[in-house]
Structure formats: structure tokens, C-alpha cells
Amino acid sequence: MRASEDFLRxxxxxTFVGFIIVLLGIALTMLQHPASTQxxxxxxxxxxxxxxxxAPEITTNMLGLGLLIMILYLFLWKTKR
Length: 81
What we know:
Layout: H1 2-32, E1 40-45, E2 48-53, H2 56-80
Antiparallel strand pairs: 1-2
């Protein structure tokens, strides 16, 4: 069971470091260009995309990406069966 504990620890560490890097990237971007910064995001809850953005074109791009990921997910899920 030692290997599974190691994988769990490494996975949690990589996830935590990833969140920290993303948050630092957002903060540095906002500090460098506070007035002209446009941001958007995509949160996937299973196959359902939740989209947000500071400008309509960014929101539309995130929605397209979310729909693409959702279709890919559903296609892979159907072919697995």
C-alpha cells in the first residue's frame, strides 16, 4: 500500500502547486495591466461547462471550448461502453 500513498501525496502536491501557479499568474497579469486586462474562465462539472468572462468575446470563446470538451467527453464515454 506504500505506492498508493505515494501517488496520493504526489497528486495532492501537484494539484496544490498548480492552483498556486494559476493564482500567481492571475495576480501578476492584473498588476501589470490593470485597466486593459480581460479574463475568462471555464469550470467543468462533469460534462457540464460553466463559463464566465469579462468581455463578450472571451465568454463566447470559453463557451466554445466548453462545448468542445463536453462533446469530446460524451463521445469518449459512449465509446468506452
